[in-house]
Each structure stands twice: as structure tokens, then as C-alpha cells.
Amino acid sequence: MSSVRVLVGTRKGAFVLSSDGTRQKWNVDGPHFGGWEIYHVKGSPADPNRLYASQTSGWFGQIMQRSDDGGKTWTTVDNKFVYDGPTGPHLWYDGTPHPWEFKRVWHLEPSKSDPDTVYAGAEDAALFRTTDGGKSWHEMPGLRTHPSAPQWQPGAGGMCLHTIIQDPANAKRMYVAISAAGAFRSDDGGISWNPINRGLRSAQIPDQDAEVGHCVHRLAMHPSRPNTLFMQKHWDVMRTDDAGENWREVSGNLPSDFGFPIEVHAHEPETVYVIPIKSDSEHYPPDSKLRVYRSRTGGGEWEALTKGLPQRDCYVNVLRDATSSDALDPFGLYFGTTGGQVYASNDAGDTWNAIVHDLPAVLSVEVQTLS
Amino acid sequence: MIRIVLPAHLRVLAKVDGEVSLDVKGEATQRNVLDALEARYPTLRGTIRDHVTFVRRPFVRFYACEEDLSNEPLDEPLPRAVAEGSEPLLVVGAMSGG
User: Fold this and answer.
1) Does B48 touch chain A (CB under 8 A)?
2) Could you tell me if B15 lies within 8 Å of chain A, comparing CB atoms?
3) What pLDDT, on the 0 to 100 scale, is given for residue A156?
4) Has residue B85 been placed in a domain?
5) Which residue, A177, A173, A208, A218, is CA-closest to A195?
6) How large is the greatest C-alpha to C-alpha distance in chain A, in angstroms?
7) What is the mean pLDDT of the segment spanning A135-162?
8) Domain count, chain B
9) Exposed, middle or buried: residue A239 (CB in 10 Å: 0-12, 13-18, 19+)?
10) pLDDT over threshold 70, residue A121
11) Closest approach of chain B CAs to the CA of A60, in angstroms?
């Protein structure tokens, strides 16, 4: 029988939640790395027991962890992230040039085929890679040295590379997203990159449809439709059907088109989920009701999913890496909140239950479907 | 023998309990002591000072003999009591938080 493992990164450690395929009773294991911020934990698709974790601290910097037994035990691996070559400036919050400085790893994306290869998205924005299971990390500098990079600027959370998507149909094609630079695509395995932000409009930048400068919060793709991407931007939910060449807005009837995560149904490529947040200055749900919105039409028309979620006095946020899904049928969807709840639905979002109520603020959620 | 007291998070990373004692090659300076510490416990590399520049991380401090040595030159000799092992070098995570 299948089972699921939910890897949760929080402000004060990592937790591993596990259940059988019914997803009704859960075992909670943790905290691992107690007291440290765990920005992301993710397993290798090629070897599900191989996990990688980004462990950080304002005091002691970046630590990288690896597990070879599904999170039972962990080994510290290399934490040396050094930019490859001269680091020019990007724009600082006040518009002045500011030198590139490594701060932390936000997102880990293991290769689909090789458990020793992992991509890491960093703040200040850059793409790193290990090909030896974390023994060494090397920057892929073509992104950071793109001619537009001096115009990139941090969002409120820092200038982070937070999304990495590998095209399942084309091993040379990858997508990344950076706050607040925008989305980028490589067609040569990450050597060179181009912005793919045509169609985005952002009122927060002087040139609202500029080539770069957009605060993209998250991208999502269904593996059967690699040219279709969905985007939750700072404001606006967007869609492209030509691999990012052109985007169009699909916010439709959402109560707010501000938010952080976006997720695609594992079995229905036109079914998309977002969690609206009231505004960029009020990081909590509209009307103090925590609602997941589902579109079965690829955006545009959205329905509120509320059963089991708090519908009054709710002021939590759901961060960009804090949703995930399993591959079971019926489809399972998961998200964590800044209030420390991890909610799960084992019926495609129709009903929800909290697996845990009182974790530290959740930074990331990843789900593994195990057979 | 140089004695070092690490903050709790770094003791966990290094998998040590209590104080660390190190033989340090050459004079007992910040640089030599940290070189010896990182050679013995490689998981501490990058947690106290930068991997490349060796600049102390901003929220890490060095105390000994009731003095703040954090901003002393890296190659300045540490106090005699630290060099002789009668007093430890304290590596401290700065107070902050809410």
C-alpha cells in the first residue's frame, strides 16, 4: 500500500509527518535541527530516502544536511556557497547599487534522475548545484551574470531564488523565479538564461511591464504540460502556454489575487490551487477566513474550499514554499501556515484536517508519495 | 592546550559536550585557534567566520577573561590565561530575539 511522507521546514526545526495511503492517522517526528530555521527539505525523485535540508541561522549562517534513510538520521554536508567570479552589484531597497552577498539557501530541487545532483536557489539570488550528493556546491553563474542582474532588487523577504522547475520533457530546459526580478528560463541546462516576464504588470515598479523587476512569488507546472506554467505573483495569478514567452492574467473571481503559493493537481493539469492573502501590507487571509481556491478551468473561475479550515478570526499566512501535493488518487493537497498548522486534504481540497496544530511557523512543505 | 566554550547550537553541530580542548600550532591567536577548531570539527566551517574572507560573522562574539576580544586583530595573541589553558575562550551567539 502507498504511503506519504510530509517534510516540513519551520522557523525552529524540521518535522517529518508520515501516514499510510488513507492519510487519516499521522506520525509526527521531530524536531530535527531544533532551534534552526529550516527553509526547505526535499527528497530525491530518484531515491526517495535521499533527503536534503537547508538549515540556516542569523547567527551561524548556512548548514546543509543530507539523509539517506528518509529523515531518520542526518549528516552535515558541505555548506560553502561561493559565487563563481566577480560579484557585481544589484539594486538595494533604496535604489542604490549593493554588492551580491550570500545569505541562505531558500529552495532545493533534486534532479529527477540522479540522487547526487541537486539544484539550490540562494539569497542573494543565484543558482548553485551539487553533483556529488552535497560534498561540494558550485554556482551556475550564467543566471547571476545576466545583463539585467544589476537591475534586480530584493523584495521584502530578500533577493531570493525560491523556485526551480525542471522540464520533464526536455532535460536542457529549466525555469527559476526570483523575488523581485521575475521568472527566467534556460534552454541549455542552466548555462544561460533569459527573462520570461512578458505580460506581467507590476504597479510597484516604475516601468510596470519591464523585462525584469517583477516580484514573482511562485511558479507551478503539471509534468504532462511542460509549456504551461502557472504563477502567483506579488499581485495577480498568471498563466503561460508557451513556456513563458507570454503570460496572461487568470485571477478571475478570486477575493484577492495577492498570495504566495500556487499548486497544480497531480492528475488534472487544468486544476489549480491558490490561497489568497488580503494584501501585501496585511499578510493574512481576506475576511479572516482561511480559504483554498480551486480552479478546474486553468484559472479564471475559482471556487472557495473551506470545509475544515478556520472561517473566522484567522490571521495566518501561507508562504511560497509551504504547499505541496501527493500523487495518490484521490488527490492529496497540503499546506502549512505561519501559525504552525499543517493542513491536509485527502479529497482534492474538498475537506481539510490539521495534521498538526502547534508547530513553529511553517516555511516549507514537501510531500513524498511512497510505494 | 586551548579551551573553547562553544554556543549550544555549535556544540550540537560539532557533536561535543561541554568545553573543547585543542592543541594549537604556533602562537595562540584568534586565527590559529579558529584554524585548529575548524580542522578538528569541519562542520563548524562557515558558522563562526566566513569561509573565504575569514571575517567573523556579525552575531558571533569572542570573550575571554571578562574582555570582549571580538574586534581584536586576528593575529593578536590571546590573553596569557587563554594561551595557558587556565581560562577558556568563549564563542558566543549575540543576544537578540523577541
Assistant:
1) yes
2) no
3) 87
4) yes
5) A177
6) 57
7) 96
8) 1
9) buried
10) yes
11) 4
C-alpha span between B21 and B30 (Å, rounded)? 15
d(CA A209, CA B94): 44
List the domain range (segments joined by +) for residue A51: 3-370
Q: Is residue B44 part of a domain?
A: yes
* Nearest CA-CA partner of A235 in A298, A278, A294, A272: A278
Q: Is the pLDDT of residue A370 over 80?
A: yes
What is the per-residue pLDDT for B98?
Answer: 60
pLDDT of residue B96: 73
Smallest Cβ distance to B46: which of A36, A58, A80? A80
With pLDDT > 70 as the criterion, what percentage of chain A qualifies? Answer: 100
Q: Cβ separation of B43 and A60 shorter than 8 Å?
A: no
* Residue B95, pLDDT score: 84
- Cα A5 to Cα A73, A121, A334, A337, distances in angstroms: 15, 23, 11, 18
| CATH number assigned to the domain comprising residue B57 | 3.10.20.30
CA atoms within 13 Å, Cβ hemisphere of A136? 3
**Total structural domains in chain A?**
1
The CA distance from A362 to B63, in Å, is: 35
**CB atoms B48 and A76 under 8 Å:** no
Taking every pair of Cα atoms in chain B, the longest distance, rounded to a whole number of angstroms, is 42
Range of the domain at B43: 2-93
CB contact under 8 A, A59 and B45: no
Asked whether residue B98 is domain-assigned, the answer is no
How big is the A-B interface in CB pairs under 8 Å?
Answer: 38
What are the strands, taking DSSP E only, across A58-173?
Answer: 61-67, 75-77, 89-91, 97-99, 104-110, 118-123, 126-130, 138-139, 160-166
Query: Model ipTM?
Result: 0.95
Return averaged pLDDT per consecutive 10 residues of chain B, 98 residues in all. Answer: 97 96 96 98 98 95 97 96 98 82
For residue A302, give Cα distances in angstroms to A250, A255, A256, A276, B55: 10, 9, 11, 11, 52
**Is residue B11 less than 8 Å (CB to CB) from chain A?**
no
- Interface contact B86, partner A, CB < 8 A: no
pLDDT, mean of residues A167-194: 97
Given an 8 Å threshold on Cβ–Cβ distance, is A61 in contact with B57?
yes
Dist. CA A244–CA A182, nearest whole Å:
11
Three-state secondary structure call for residue A271: coil
Residue B72 within any structural domain of the chain = yes
